[in-house]
Amino acid sequence: MDKLSSYYKKSITRQFMSFMLLALVLILCGAGFVLWSTVNIIQDYEDKSKINREKQELVSDIANHANQIILRTRGYYVYQTEFEYNQIFSEKAVLDEAMAAFKQLSLNDTEQELITSIEDFFTQFFNEVLPQGIAFANANDYASLRSFISAEADNPVNDLLDYSQRFEKTVQKIASDENAKLVTGLTYQGGIFIGYILLVLILSIFITRKIATDIGHPLGQLTKQASRFAEGEMFQVDYVKREDEIGGLSRAFNEMMTQIQSKEEELLSQNEELQAQQDELQAQQEELHSAMEQMERNEQYLEKRNLLVQSLSNTLDKQELLGSIIRHIVKIVGYDKGLIVMMNAQHDYASVGVSDKGAAQFIRTIDDGLIMRAAQTKEPYQIKRACVESEQGYHEQQMYASELVIPILNAEDEMVACMMLTKLGQPIAKHEQIEIVGMARQVSLAFDKLALYEVSERQRQMTSDMLNTIQEGVQLLDLEGRTLQINKKMSEFFGFLEPLGETMDLPLDEFLSQLSSNVVEPEMLRSFIVEWVSDGGLNEINWMNYEITEPDRRYIQIYCEPLYREGVKFGTLLVHRDITKEYEVDRMKSEFVSTVSHELRTPLASVLGFAELLLHRELKPERQRKYVSTIHQEARRLTTLINDFLDLQRMESGKQTYDMKPISLTTLINEVIELQRIGTTVHEIVWESDGTSMILMADQDKMQQVFTNLLSNAIKYSPEGGRITISSRIEAGQHVISIQDEGLGIPDNALPKLFNKFYRVDNSDRREIGGTGLGLAIVKEIITRHRGTIEVDSKLGEGSTFTIRFPVQESQQPRMEADGDVQEQLPESSIDVMLIENDYNLSIMLRDELQASGFRVHLYTQGQKALEEIEELAPDIVVIDLMLEPDTSGWQVIEQMKKSESLQNTPIIISSAFDEKDKAAQWGIREFLVKPYLPGRLTATIHQILRKG
After folding, report:
1. Rounded to whole angstroms, how far apart are CA atoms 549 and 580?
2. Between 650 and which of 245, 398, 656, 898 could a Cys-Cys bridge form, CB atoms 3.0 to 4.6 Å apart?
3. Is the pTM of this model over 0.85?
4. Same domain, 453 and 483
5. pLDDT tens digits, residue range 792-808?
6. Which of 288, 214, 192 is closest to 15 using CA atoms?
7. Residue span of the structural domain in which 834 resides
């Protein structure tokens, strides 16, 4: 016990913590007791409430099920249904369960008597009453049944229902009483707890006061004694006999006073010694001060040199570098002005204290002035000269300037720049020159670095320009798949790459993630790129095609190549090539093949079918005429298709020729209208003209092709008939011709593509009409070559209007042959026509046509034989095909005729499937018939030649 008391008294902290722990334990004990008492009160209240609620619920259930049994029984008596009978026993089972549960509870005498009477009643009811009642009901003896049932008026079920209602009120009253008891008990517990807390607080105040007294009083005494000692008073400290911290503090304070008194004497003796040392330190301080000044000067010099070095290292801009060099060197050496000039073609320079005029003068004489010596010797040298007036300032006596010329050499010992520094009124010391030469060596290194940078930058820019010029997207990936560089075309392909610039560090996952939202079927592309990055494409498939949707829909072909440096792979190059046009061409080619297959086979089937009938059946003349007419119509349709294909091929190859002559569009449109009226009976073709004569420099055949195509389209795409209006007028210096129909119309989304080759509107109401999609493309090409324009305005289901505009030209009447110009026509029977045609069937048809027109025809199907006999025959006119047997062509026959004196002026008509009018014109041949053509056209051409003589 003594040990515990001693341990307790040695520490104020232990004393304080003990008092606080005691107060805390008392509070916790009181709180625990109150909590336990409160929980017991509430638990008792909950248990009683639960039992009362269970009794109330079970009494209510028993009453309800008993009532249901009586009701179901009476229902069965009335309706005698199986459902009501089953429900009686279902309710009995539930009633038995409820009564069994009720009997398990703690019951008073009244409740026990009630449940016993109910059990007795239902035992009698199911054993005696119910069977008897059912027997009466089944026998339809309702009089006996009513007499029998009336005996049940005073049954326990009614008592049970009354008891259920009374019991509910009793439970409510019991609950109210229990609530009041609960509130009273909790209030009492709260009062006890508050009193207990007050008691604990009073005890805590008493303990706190005692601790404050035990600690505060001795500390106050020590404080007063410390103040007296601080004022210099010497005294004996009262010894406090305590074992805690205060006792230790008083003892330590007493010892401290003793030691201070002893040390004070020692310090006085040391002070005298320190005074002597101070005088010695003063002398050393003066010496250090002079050394510090020298160090500051050296530091300033080093700072200037450091600024020069930084300026040489921190910029690669030539002009900025020159300015920084001369500015810092002049500042370091403390000169008055300076100039540095590069020895390149531009003589870039920078100066300090030198005017632009002076610098320009220096540069003009740089090749034969002061710099010549430095360039030859590659050594610096000094110049002393008299100062000019502007350098004299306010000095009246003559001043002299010292100038130092320093060549700056590169690594190849060539002078790349020259520096000139000027010092006014003072000579240049030897160490200054050595210092400046050292700085010049640093400058030369900076120029070498600048030269290397400029070469590297030019190469980088050249590489960048080359990459940005090519029309493929280029993407450089490192071994981990990060995108390091792309070109501008790659940015155009993928909009999300544009903000990142050409040089980047884009991880592969991020690139593929953004790529997925822009690509159709991205998984294939993702797998392809990942495979090439991971294993270098070991499957040897280095390309694939994919489709992007944004920012523009394109079809791209990607191919990959690994990059090696000294045999080690360092990256992968992905090239994205835009194959949209090729894809569209392939698609159009497929559509073209399909269209041509359909459009050519359909008329061919008709021609072959009707020809077969004509060959193998005896037909009436009118039916033969109808079949022949159909064959002729389908043949003309085939001719039109083939001509369209040939025209398109010539236009794309640039071989289409135009025979530009003044023609009357008015006459031409009239002829086209009359021809189209023959082929339709359900269309009304009306021409509304303002009466102005339309003369145009044009190819008449091509213009006829334009208007025939547009007018036939108007008829074809108006299958129900209707009015077709052609109007012409002059508007804003242009001939304007409009063709308007009331047909199917054109969808808005098809208008931009309407004049594209092979394009057809994909609608169910147009699939049966047919066509190759070439007509409008050829029309636009012809109109464009005539410096015209074509526009279309259409509403679906209401019709379309095509508007053509040609510039108005000076009035020129088409040249008509005057009567006097026509020579007397020779009789056809005296004209010898030499027909050289390799196609036997065509040659027979043309021969028969010419003979029927009265000409003497000499037919040759072999070009070689025609060459042998043409001199002897000396025909009046030669009709020749360009494609003859393999070793002979029509051009050979023409060449031989032009070399012959007797035949060189003989008229020649070329009949060929190839449109080579330009080559024919070089031989002076103007008559060129492109197959297929009507036989009568050949006859008309011969007559035209004969009329011209």
Report:
1. 12
2. 656
3. no
4. no
5. 998 888 889 999 999 88
6. 214
7. 820-948
